[in-house]
């Protein structure tokens, strides 16, 4: 009977013990069978786990941060992290310290570049001397412009900083060597483990490198240890401070229309605090640090509130905003509940990737595309009119909006009127181009200010949760 059953069932035939099996062979066969069963159970369990994770993820709320490059997407993500996990950056300060140092070095490099342009341009111009701390000493000018040979000497003393920038960028971003463009920003490819790389490069300062006194020059005879950005920055601190606050230098920057304070990752006002051996970035510093995003990064956040089993898990997707990055956004469109769109209120600048396109014009086009996209028809759109602080300082500096946007006409050139003007424009596009009705949510933000941004984010979270529950007919 047993033999007939084995012959009928193909599985049983496979498992059928061979004829004349010895007890030893039987033991080995049984052990193999048990091992096979254990592996099969393991596979079943992992399939179940993945299914559970998939279901959980389907229930999770997904937010996509969109907007052009430098609009403030990654900074908004940092605000989410700080709002829902106040100690988020505690263990990352060393990494951010290096980013901030590189941001600072980049500003110095840009400053020196402008001075060089001035030297190149003024060799035949009549001298202009607005004076200033560096130009008070009598010295023979090398050029006929406002800059003296004191400025030249400072420029030469700062050259180790530039060498350091090139060296660090090479270490951090080997792929950028091929681009070979001067003054490039630090950028990170999503999922490249960039924090790990930075952590390895940002080795702690050796104890022997600490100065005996403030501003000492340790590490080598002139203190400019080529491998340590902290030591080089400390050694260059007084020169950077002197140059940045020098009246002649400010005059040249103004003359060339360069507002370094509007550059991403601007830390020149904080050199005395940052260029020290004991510097540790604050959360505010980290919010202002600039790292360009390439690709799409997924960040999981777990929140304390929400309906039981619902609304506690959020995924925030941070994307690269430059034009060549935007096609990578689309695969995320059909699975998100909400978009936070960052529209920087910078009306007098052009895109870095295309200097013929005004930033605000690009933002308006992008907003129109997002509003009209049918894959996003059910998503809640939240608009952040960001960089309000920069708008304020631009208007205060006397820059007229109607020079860039003639339709603004003769309305007052102040923050209140300008903001209202843009709000109305964005609202009109939203109404006209959305495939079906949806409410218009807008906030004026300056996402480098965590206190006000946190309050906005908490409100946005409630709004998104509410809309999501409603769409699932839970409310
Ligand atoms: N002053 C000011 N600076 C801001 C504001 N929002 C962002 N920034 C700064 O602008 C720079 C660019 O911000 P990011 O958040 O990196 O921009 P992004 O949209 O992620 O840019 P990509 O990654 O290139 O797409 C950073 O140095 C920020 O600190 C703001 O409201 N005011
Ligand atoms: Mg970014």
UniProtKB/TrEMBL annotation:
InterPro entries: Gprotein_alpha_su, GproteinA_insert, P-loop_NTPase. GO terms for cellular component: cytoplasm; heterotrimeric G-protein complex. It holds the Pfam family G-alpha. Keywords: GTP-binding, Magnesium, Metal-binding, Nucleotide-binding, Transducer. One of its GO terms (molecular function) is GTP binding. GTP binds at residues 287-293, 386-389. PROSITE patterns: G_ALPHA. Residues 1-36, 122-150, 199-227 are annotated as: Disordered. Mg(2+) binds at residue 293. GO terms for biological process: adenylate cyclase-modulating G protein-coupled receptor signaling pathway. SMART domains: G_alpha. This is G-alpha-domain-containing protein. It comes from Heliocybe sulcata.
């Amino acid at each position: 009977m047993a033999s007939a059953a084995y012959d009928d069932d193909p599985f049983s035939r496979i498992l059928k013990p061979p004829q004349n099996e010895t007890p030893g062979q039987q033991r080995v066969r049984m052990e193999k069978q048990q091992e096979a069963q254990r592996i099969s159970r393991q596979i079943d369990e992992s399939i179940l786990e993945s299914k559970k994770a998939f279901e959980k993820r389907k229930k999770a709320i997904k937010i996509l941060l969109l907007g052009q490059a430098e609009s403030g997407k990654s900074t908004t993500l940092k605000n989410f992290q700080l709002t829902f996990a106040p100690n988020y950056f505690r263990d990352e300060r060393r990494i951010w310290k290096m980013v901030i140092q590189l941001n600072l070095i980049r500003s110095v490099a840009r400053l020196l570049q402008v001075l060089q342009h001035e030297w190149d341009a003024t060799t035949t111009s009549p001298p202009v001397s607005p004076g200033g701390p560096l130009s008070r000493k009598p010295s023979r000018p090398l050029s006929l412009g406002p800059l003296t040979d004191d400025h030249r000497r400072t420029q030469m003393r700062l050259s180790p900083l530039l060498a350091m920038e090139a060296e660090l960028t090479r270490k951090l971003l080997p792929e950028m060597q091929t681009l070979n463009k001067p003054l490039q920003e630090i950028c990170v490819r999503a999922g490249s483990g960039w924090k790990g790389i930075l952590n390895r490069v940002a080795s702690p300062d050796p104890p022997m490198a600490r100065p005996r006194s403030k501003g000492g020059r340790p590490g080598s005879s002139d203190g400019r240890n080529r491998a340590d950005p902290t030591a080089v920055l400390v050694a260059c601190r007084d020169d950077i401070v002197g140059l940045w606050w020098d009246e002649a230098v400010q005059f040249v920057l103004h003359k060339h229309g360069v507002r370094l304070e509007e550059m991403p990752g601007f830390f020149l006002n904080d050199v005395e605090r940052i260029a020290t051996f004991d510097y540790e970035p604050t959360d505010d510093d980290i919010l202002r640090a600039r790292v360009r995003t390439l690709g799409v990064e997924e960040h999981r956040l777990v929140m304390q509130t929400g309906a039981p089993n619902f609304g506690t898990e959020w995924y925030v997707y941070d994307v690269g905003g430059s034009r060549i990055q935007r096609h990578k956004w689309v695969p995320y469109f059909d699975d998100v509940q909400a978009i936070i769109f960052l529209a920087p209120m910078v009306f007098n600048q052009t895109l870095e990737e295309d200097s013929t396109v005004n930033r605000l014009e690009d933002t308006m086009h992008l907003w129109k595309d997002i509003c009209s996209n049918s894959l996003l028809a059910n998503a809640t759109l939240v608009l952040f009119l960001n960089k309000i602080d920069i708008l304020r300082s631009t208007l205060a500096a006397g820059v007229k909006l109607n020079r860039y946007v003639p339709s603004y006409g003769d309305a007052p050139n102040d923050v209140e009127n300008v903001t209202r003007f843009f709000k109305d424009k964005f609202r009109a596009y939203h109404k006209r181009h959305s495939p079906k009705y949806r409410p218009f949510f807008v906030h004026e933000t300056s996402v480098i200010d965590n206190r006000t941004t946190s309050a906005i984010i908490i409100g946005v979270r409630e709004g998104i949760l509410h809309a999501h529950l409603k769409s699932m007919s839970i409310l």
